[in-house]
Amino acid sequence: MTDKTAMNSASVKRTILRIVNEILERNNGASDIVIIGVRTRGVHIAERIASAIEKLEGIRPPLGTLDITLYRDDLRQKTEWPKVKRTEIPFSVEDKKVILVDDVLYTGRTTRAAIEAIMDFGRPSAIQLAALIDRGHRELPIQPDYIGHKIETARTQEVRVLLKETDGKDEVLLVQD
Amino acid sequence: MEFERKHILGLEELNAEEITLVLDTAESMKEVSERDVKKVPALRGMTVCNLFFEPSTRTRSSFEIAEKRLSADVLNFTTSQSSVVKGESLLDTARNLEAMGASMIVIRHPMSGAPWLLAKELNSSIINAGDGSHEHPSQALLDLFTIRRMKGGIEGLKIVIVGDILHSRVARSNIWGFLKLGAEVRVVGPPTLIPKYIEKIDVRTFYNLSEAVVDADVIIMLRIQKERQDFEFFPSLREYSRFYGLTREKIKRAHENVTVMHPGPINRGVELSSDMADGPGSVILEQVSNGIAVRMAMFYLVASARRNG
User: Fold this and answer.
1) What's the pTM value of the predicted model, to 2 decimals?
2) Distance CA A63, CA A99 (A)
3) Rounded mean pLDDT of B282-290?
4) Residue B34 burial (C-beta neighbours within 10 Å; 0-12, 13-18, 19+)
5) Bigger pLDDT: B275 or B113?
6) Can you give chain A as a three-state secondary structure string?
7) How confident is the model over A134-154, as pLDDT tens digits?
8) What gap in Å lies between CA B279 and CA B256, rounded to an integer?
9) Is residue A76 pLDDT above 90, yes or no?
């Protein structure tokens, strides 16, 4: 097994800041924005985006946590069923611009499940997708609005996002089995 | 931890880790039940059959709501509407339901052991919704879930179960669950309604309610099953109520924040005075709403075990 560093700590920091600026530019500020992170690492990136927006704009957008386990369309194919965790969206998404945040965008099936879940909470005016890494291999017509890094990968490779909150350091690894 | 049981038949056979996994999963299901749109697609395409051989409103409705919230297709069979009245056996009825595509069967039956028979003979997953006076695992799990939410945990709690312990499947399943999660269990009731040798499973027995509730954290009142007993076990409802009905006076020696529970339906004025049933310590309606979340968790975990096994 060989690991290749695709992003280091400084690069992760710069990239998240760039995504934040793109979000603010596209939405003319943060007044109608809510941010929802997909468990697990998407939540931590979402938290960083919310904090950066607060620093730049003086307002902290509402922050939610989404567990998409109950919305997955691959439960019957999986050999292991994932443990269900809590979804916490303690605000209305009605007529809001939802920034959906995930660490890695791959087949698009997680994003589809996340969109379906968000729609069960209300009718946002828009859902925009931010991903730290886009590794390709889409199986559904899903296109991110904000991408940190686009990495060419083989299906046999794994993109592993490490974050300080869960892993003690910020790093993105390309792992070849 | 993976849930590896294809069936949920009773709490006697579940270990503490499995019980905790059900309760943790139910926390997520509770969140679904609190949304405006109380539905997720997790069991889309699966058919669940509710096979009830005894009258039941709340348990059957609770299972049905849980199934629908997970997007399963639901079939309801009650004895009076099925071919059982034409003499069809339980096994044949269940086999027919399985042939119609039911991958999970929820069964309530007056005979103890009926769910085990189906589990042995069918490919469908069997969920016990109450068998005779044996077990009622979903009720026990929802009681555990409710207590854990109220008290923050089960271990070390003093839990008193009051009433007809002998005939109560709720009591039997509760005792297994409470003991496995580390609670102290006390039972209290008329001597005729306490099973012999119950102390052998580490349960303390009392015949006086006021003594049993000393320092109690939780008191579970059982329903007097008028339909099962014909009052052979105590002289009259009035006498039962006088000795074993919960009142403000009798509860004085319990913990200040004691939680009062009842699996329902309540015989008001028999097991509980109205001020106790509707009082600040009562969580009877929370038990009902928590039942849906717990049953959703049971379906989800059994479905996962079916996939893996």
Assistant:
1) 0.92
2) 10
3) 96
4) exposed
5) B113
6) CEEEEEECHHHHHHHHHHHHHHHHHHCCCCCCEEEEEECCHHHHHHHHHHHHHHHHHCCCCCEEEECCHHHCCCCCCCCCCCCCCCCECCCCCCCCEEEEEEEEECCCHHHHHHHHHHHCCCCCCEEEEEEEEECCCCCCCCCCCEEEEECCCCCCEEEEEECHHHHCCCEEEEEEC
7) 999 999 999 999 999 999 999
8) 13
9) no
Do residue B28 and residue A87 have CB atoms under 8 angstroms apart?
yes
Strands (E) in B71-136, as ranges, are 73-78, 102-109, 125-131
- DSSP label at B222? P
Instruction: Please give the structure tokens belonging to residue B82.
Output: 């099925």
Chain A's closest residue to B30, CA to CA, is A86
- CA pair distance A102, A116, nearest whole angstrom: 15
Looking at the predicted structure, is the pLDDT value of residue A108 above 90?
yes
Lowest-confidence range among A78-87, B92-101, B103-112, B289-298? A78-87
**A177 against B176, higher pLDDT:** B176
- pLDDT score of B86 more than 80: no
CA distance A60 to A42: 17
Q: A121 vs B36: CB contact, 8 Å cut-off? A: yes
Residues in B touching A76 (Cβ below 8 Å): 45, 307
Asked if A94 and A32 count as a contact pair (C-beta separation under 8 A), the reply is: no
What was the pLDDT predicted at B53? 92
Q: Which residues of A touch B29 (CB under 8 A)?
A: 84
Q: How many residues does chain B have?
A: 309
Closest residue in B to A79 (Cα) is B308
Q: Which amino acid, B218? A: V
The answer to whether residues B212 and B189 touch, using CB atoms and an 8 Å cutoff, is no
A10 has pLDDT over 90: yes
Write down the mean pLDDT value for chain B. 92
CB-CB neighbors (< 8 A) of B125 in chain A:
none
pLDDT higher than threshold 70 for residue A88: yes
Please provide the DSSP assignment of B224-287 as one string. P-HHHHTT-SSS-HHHHHHHHSB-TTGGGGS-TT-EEE--S---BTTTB-HHHHTSTTB-HHHH
Per residue in B122-169, pLDDT (tens digit) is 999 999 999 999 999 999 999 999 999 999 999 999 999 999 999 999
Q: Do B105 and B39 contact (CB within 8 A), yes or no?
A: no
Largest pairwise CA distance in chain A = 47
ipTM for the complex shown: 0.84
Q: What is the separation, in whole angstroms, between the first and last Cα of chain B? A: 15
- Of B36, B37, B300, which has the smallest distance from its Cβ to A84's Cβ? B300
Measured between beta carbons, the chain B residues lying within 8 angstroms of A69 are 28, 42
Residue B236 to chain A, least CA–CA distance (Å): 49
